[in-house]
Structures
1.
Amino acid sequence: MAESKQNKVLVIVIAAIASTGGLLFGFDTGVISGAIPFLQLDFNLTDAQIEDVTAFGLIGAVIGALFGGRITDILGRKKVILVSAFIFATGAWWSGAAPDITQLLISRLYLGLAIGVSSFAVPLYIAEISPTKIRGTLVSLFQLLITVGILVSYLSDSALADNDVVSSWRPMFYMGIFPAIILFVGMFFLPETPRWLMSKGKEAEGRRVLAKIEDPEMIDTAIQLMKDELAKDADQAGWKELFKPWMRNALIIAIGIMFFQQFVGINTVIYYSPKIFLKAGFEGNEAAIWASVSVGVVNVLFTILSLYLIDRLGRRKLYFIGTTGIVISLIFMGLGFALQAQLGDMAKWFLVGSMLVYIAFFAISLGPLGWLIISEVFPLRVRGLGASIGSLSNWGFNTLVVWTFFKLMNILGDAEVFWFFGAIGVIGLIWGYKFIPETKGVTLEKIEEHWRQGKAPNEL
Ligand code: BGC
């Protein structure tokens, strides 16, 4: 009795820590959005410099994701998450206190490292330490909490935005210190994962941790599974294996879905929505930030809906429904700008409306599908490596889009940028017809078998 109670408490603590990890990831990418209009006034920044500030955080994330995997294997999951919590806290403080643009850029890059590392290490920690029965739920909780983190950053930005105080952006960045401290303190008391301990030959210690979290009758099975898996890992072929011809489809799918997830322009809305609203005719930074809070709320609500739909409708249906909706709403967003003169005051509401529809369609499709599919399409032996290529592509493409958005707006025009993203969405539909596999209800072994037989993704 007492044992199972302890088990439950620990699982709740783990879930809470998982939540702060996801929350920080979302918070620190989303916080830039409400800070930008103030930063721009305070430091007299051009749009190009705003792109730099945003992109530097993402470049940090690329670097963090690139090296995070190796370091996490060497030092252990717990130590790496503790270090990233430390970077989250000190980075939030440093970026809030930055006296000039140079320090702001460096501090965002530094903070980005923690975002990249945690985007990889926190889900890994959760997956390895959760009791088998609720692992799926806890891992998708992390995804959901990213969108909650984005919403929290919008709300806190709104609460702190004061049109009379240009330095309002500073407390916005400082807020990130609090969840980081919670993550650090919580993680400090949590154990290392049994799987990592086993991989370092510390079986006794691994068993002790398992005994605290796993159903007593499942412990031996769990240990055996880990041993089997570790034995398979021993003959991991690594990069070479990943580039063999039969793996080509899996690679194209992972990189491709992240390309389309980012190139329909999602983060121009997530990071820049207050600026877009200002351009659309809303007045005052506060009004613009509040308009974007609605983006955050819709994002969370429809991500919850997607958790329900993903195993019922299946991947392909969601992909086509979602991407079609994204393309149509992008066309309307463009129209909101193109018809500004004719629509008058209506234009901005037209824009808010189509932007919310756009977010809703993204949140039920490309958002969660990207992360899910990269975890499904690779064979076990290269799953970690494959998924990290997917996540690297995600941060890389994200950087590219965010760094060029305002430049593109100047070159193409306000409306045309959104139509450009829409056109990419159309290509995504054609690409997806050939490449999006229906993995609903298919075991991961069957997916591997399918590639080995040289069959096409849409035959699955
Ligand atoms: C994307 C992020 C995006 C978020 C929005 C994620 O799936 O990878 O780039 O900011 O969705 O909710």
Note: The first helix runs from residue 2 to 30.
2.
Amino acid sequence: MDLFEYQGKQYFARYGIPVSAGGVADTVEEAVAAAEAAGYPVVVKAQVQVGGRGKAGGVKLAADAAEVRLHAADIIGLDIKGHVVRRLWVEHATDIAEEYYASFTLDRGAKAHLAMVSARGGVEIETVADEDPEAISRLHVDPATGFDERQARELVERAGLPEVAREGVVEVLEKLYRCYEEGDADLVEINPLVLTPDGRVHALDAKVTLDDNAAFRHPEWDAFRDIDELDERERLARSKGLQYVGLDGTVGIIANGAGLAMSTCDVVNQVGGSPANFLDIGGGANAEVMANALEVINSDPLVRSIFINIFGGITRGEEVAKGIVAALERVDIGSPMVVRLDGTNAEEGREILLGVDPGRLVSRPTMLEAAREAVALAGGARR
Ligand code: GDP
Ligand code: MN
């Protein structure tokens, strides 16, 4: 999960990384209120999950309420590389002597974490990386032993940071590593990490990507989920703990496992149909999960037929079948269903499904046959 800058800064603050006081705003008047609370001068910043906001006119300094109004009105609704700005972050402005760059990320190839520091941070970091990669010092961090002060010092010296900034940057790097490691992030990046004229080191931007596989131990991450950015179907699916991908065809797809879900989409396409969505119900599909999945698919107005493709492993065929039957009692399904059940106890499962009205549900022995049937029921193949 990618965080917005203001969320990233909240995360940084928990680990003691110095960030500025500020507030979020969805309207011009809220921006003024946030500015009054933060104290002038302020910086008004577009909250979109894409870099280069500064160059796109999404980051503006304001000396008073009138300027905040002007900039906030300009930035709200601004399209930055396809992301329309709906929210602002307004913080007390910082005086900048120098801009640095600092990050930790995962280097999968090296099976290690990668720390990067540069004395040439700011809006041109991409150019620096391309034209003068030597200007970014890199250090691999063994996840088993972690990152210590000695390594932080080595990085800071190699990056050629001035004496006055070193102590402060070393401190921020140690905190940033904790944020990355204990905070279960895949990426933490500060650009710019600034040195102020009075010698303080301060994070002016925050880019954080959290590792979704660790979400189970971070109930507090729920607050970061930008539910507004999801469409209605995805919201419903997520609230039921299902993995859902919305598409724009007519066949609704339920499968167990992301791989099978995707190959089901391919087969539907192959026989001339088009998927409306796909839903991965995962490994232990029981009646409850199946009923939830059907409920989500059923709420999608694009769906003309539903293709349930289950290859039983741990998930047993008769459990899936019982789930479908139970779901039919609970949810009023508007579209005809085609089921392909294979693997563990598939035979028993198909037996159970014979009890369902064939006008509502039919079984097909192979994925291809089932796909053809589902596409036919959805109104036939594309011309
Ligand atoms: P980005 O362009 O999306 O990376 O947005 P940033 O948050 O990094 O802001 C872009 C640039 O705006 C920074 O590199 C700074 O030069 C400038 N900037 C951001 N905050 C402040 C601030 O508080 N004071 C000053 N003087 N400049 C700022
Ligand atoms: Mn930045």
Note: The chain has a mean pLDDT of 92.
